[in-house]
UniProtKB/TrEMBL annotation:
<dbReference type="Pfam" id="PF03358">
    <property type="entry name" value="FMN_red"/>
</dbReference>
<dbReference type="InterPro" id="IPR005025">
    <property type="entry name" value="FMN_Rdtase-like_dom"/>
</dbReference>
<dbReference type="InterPro" id="IPR029039">
    <property type="entry name" value="Flavoprotein-like_sf"/>
</dbReference>
<protein>
    <recommendedName>
        <fullName>NADPH-dependent FMN reductase-like domain-containing protein</fullName>
    </recommendedName>
</protein>
<dbReference type="GO" id="GO:0016491">
    <property type="term" value="F:oxidoreductase activity"/>
</dbReference>
<feature type="domain" description="NADPH-dependent FMN reductase-like">
    <location>
        <begin position="6"/>
        <end position="43"/>
    </location>
</feature>
Length: 52
């Protein structure tokens, strides 16, 4: 899930963005598993930039 287009295009585009607007359906007051995975990956990426 985190390879390919995610690493090469999506995460760099998110890093360059001034803001992010998440549009997603409401599943019992929770976001989808895939969107949660993206957010978790972004957290890991931002943490690695701070540490490294």
């Amino acid at each position: 899930f985190y390879g390919g287009i995610m690493i090469k295009e999506i995460l760099p585009a998110i890093e360059e963005a001034d803001c992010i607007i998440w549009l997603c359906p409401n599943y019992n007051d929770a976001i989808s598993a895939k969107l949660m995975a993206v957010i978790n990956r972004m957290t890991g990426e931002s943490t690695s930039h701070l540490v490294g």
